[in-house]
Amino acid sequence: MARRRKATKFDDLLALACVTAVAYYVCPPHEYLLEWIVLVPTILLFWIAFLMPTKCDYMTQRNKPCDRGVRGKLRGCWDHGRSKRDAMFAALGGTNPGRWFRVTWTAPDSPTRPRPARTPTPPNESNARRGLYDLVMLITAVISAAGTVLTFLIG
After folding, report:
1. Nearest C-alpha neighbor of 114 from the set 122, 102, 126
2. Which of 43, 72, 80, 152 is the most exposed place for a label (fewest CB within 10 A)?
3. Opening angle at CA 73, ends 118 and 50, nearest 5
4. Quick one: which of 84, 90, 79 has its CA closest to 49?
5. Distance from C-alpha of 79 to C-alpha of 110, rounded to nearest angstrom
């Protein structure tokens, strides 16, 4: 069985360049300038936030960033994904609404009682800052996407 190739930024950027070249000939920038001004940053921010091959970078207990590969700056590895989302909400001064549903369920005839799942410890200072960065990236991508939709509706 063949092994899967590791995702690289070069492969993704090559695909984006091909899509851009096709778009350049279909919708030339001199005719569709506003669309290009809105779409190019939106697509790049979406790629960085959700698709770019990168590292988890969540600060572990050993005070080193996690080096597992993930797709996108806003995502975390299977160990730290929940903690990164919690850090984004902590940067806003709130709590992750997903915590309301973190309960371990057991069978009705089980002798043990259901108990809440282990909640993560409060994020370190650096992870809270990283959460703020991730949140700003997400908000910027959403604003750019909304601008794209408005461009198509108005134009």
Report:
1. 102
2. 152
3. 100
4. 84
5. 28
Among 149, 145, 150, residue whose Cα is nearest residue 45: 145
Quick check: 71 and 113 in contact, CB under 8 A?
A: no
Whole-prediction pTM value?
A: 0.56
The answer to whether 141 touches 49, Cβ cutoff 8 Å, is: yes
Sign (positive or negative) of CA dihedral 119, 64, 5, 137: positive
User: What is the pLDDT tens value at each position of the chain, 155 positions in all?
Assistant: 567 777 788 888 888 889 889 988 998 988 888 888 888 888 888 888 888 888 988 888 888 989 999 988 888 888 888 888 888 788 878 888 877 776 655 556 666 665 666 666 665 555 656 777 888 888 888 899 888 888 888 86
Q: What would the two tokens of residue 31 be?
A: 């005719």
Tell me the β-bridge partners of 124.
Answer: none
Neighbours of 133 (CB within 10 A): 15
